[in-house]
Amino acid sequence: MPLALLALAIGAFGIGTTEFVVMGLLPQIAADYGVSIPSAGLLVTGYALGVVAGAPLMTVLGTKMDRKTMLMLLMGLFVAGNLLSALAPAFPLMLAGRIVTSLAHGAFFGIGSVVAADLVAPDKKAGAIATMFTGLTVANIVGVPLGTFVGQAVGWRATFAGVAALGIVGLVGIAKLVPALPRQQGARLRRELAAFRNTQVVLAMAMTVLGFGGVFAAITYIAPMMTHVAGYSDGAVTWLLVLFGIGMFLGNLLGGRYADRRLMPMLFTTLAGLAVVLAVFTVTAHNKVLAAATILLIGALGFATVPPLQKRVLDQAHGAPTLASAVNIGAFNLGNALAAWLGGVVISSGLGYTAPNWVGALLAASALALALWSAALERRSAGASGGVGERVSEPASEAATDSVSALV
After folding, report:
1. Which of 160, 314, 343, 389 falls between 20 and 30 A from 32, CA-CA?
2. Where are the transmembrane segments (predicted)?
């Protein structure tokens, strides 16, 4: 494994930690600033919306310079945003720090995926990309629980300062280990935008918003739900987040393994299972053991959808997947923002801390409906063309992967 992949994984680890750790620290942050927990949930919503806007914006800006330099600038932005969050004297500045941090998120994973693929032989590209994304999943097993523990023991500001330091390590690693990479020779932006006229691309992104949003409807408010409903102590939230992270890791492996084999059946199964588990969580949240098991399942089912959803976008975007891929990363976070906001609405309406689970179940069920519709449209199109669509899908996917290197 090239050491440059380790540098990218460290960056992904830092980004994953800062994205998710705020959920375990919401009560402390809310109390420190004197705001309600639903208001503090804006830190999740604001970050997610920043990724939605930043993913395509920073990706397009990244075409003006070589990829290594862009990755270093993104990590610099990440460090600055976390330092602002750590030092913010007022809630609006804390929110601003989260938004600054979020601007680096989508483009880092989009450009980093291309760099990772270019570092290895053609038959190892998917494994290289998975290695980088392992940093994100491991963040939820190690980084998020550790950050939550530190935040509860020493203060949440120390957590964000530590994440900023981790970003500096990632920045230095990229500078030292990632080789010099050629500058993009002209962005074919019009061709990239044309991918969004494809109904299947739009449906895949809508599935991403709703399906992944289902996960965040519940997980955003996991700390108050587990302390006020299940009866866990504040310190136990750390270990519950470890369980969620383990579920993410296992789900990511499962989704990656089957996305190339039976993509749509995999989506049907995971989205249906996610909808059921989130609905059941309204009941199991009242029991410590069952709540813990359910959190593990939510992580596994939720992140098992990530590889197939991302691959679906790449397949359907055909020869112009770069911007579509970046926008789909933003779509994951648009789902996060939507779900966090809706979860805050139902809590503020007096429906209790388990009410966001029903929101999540409805979002996941809606994603399943879109997946079934997308498959029906695909079968109809394949039938009209005599099955040609099925025969060319794999080569199209390979062409999409190869074209990433030429475009970014």
Report:
1. 343
2. 38-58, 70-91, 103-121, 133-154, 160-181, 201-224, 236-254, 266-283, 289-309, 330-352, 358-377
CA proximity to 284, closest of 207, 203, 230: 230
> Domain 189-408 carries which CATH code?
1.20.1250.20
Q: What is the CA radius of gyration of the chain?
A: 20
187: left (phi over 0), alpha (psi -120 to 50) or beta: beta
Buried b (16+ CB within 10 A) or exposed e, 173-206: bbeebbeebeebeebbeeebebbeebebbbbbbb
Domain extents in the chain = 1-187, 189-408
Q: Which string of DSSP letters, residue by residue, matches 32-95?
A: HHT--HHHHTHHHHHHHHHHHHHHHHHHHHGGGSBHHHHHHHHHHHHHHHHHHHHH-SSHHHHH
pLDDT tens for the chain, residues 1 to 408: 678 889 999 999 999 999 888 878 888 999 999 998 888 888 988 888 888 888 788 877 766 777 888 899 999 999 999 999 999 999 999 999 999 999 998 888 877 877 887 787 766 665 677 678 778 888 878 888 889 889 988 999 999 999 999 999 999 999 999 887 665 544 466 666 666 777 788 888 889 889 888 998 888 888 888 999 988 888 788 788 788 888 988 887 787 777 667 778 888 999 999 999 999 999 999 999 999 999 999 999 988 887 778 777 777 776 665 677 677 777 887 887 788 888 888 988 888 899 999 999 999 999 999 999 988 888 887 776 654 444 444 443 343 333 333 333
Q: With H, G, I as helix, E, B as strand and everything else as coil, classify residue 183.
A: strand
- Whole-structure pTM value: 0.72
- Residue 390 carries which side chain, given as an amino acid letter? E
Unique residue bearing structure tokens 């996941």 = 364
CA distances in angstroms from 80 to 77, 87, 135, 166, 311, listed in the order given: 5, 11, 20, 12, 32
Protein fold of 1-187:
Growth Hormone; Chain: A; (1.20.1250)
Distance CA 251, CA 267 (A): 12
Residue 155: which residues within 8 A CB-CB, separation 6 or more?
A: 28
Asked whether the beta carbons of 211 and 309 are under 8 A apart, the reply is yes
Structure tokens at 193: 């935008």
Q: Please, are residues 24 and 151 in contact by the beta-carbon 8 Å criterion?
A: yes
Whether the domain at 1-187 and the domain at 189-408 fall into the same CATH topology: yes
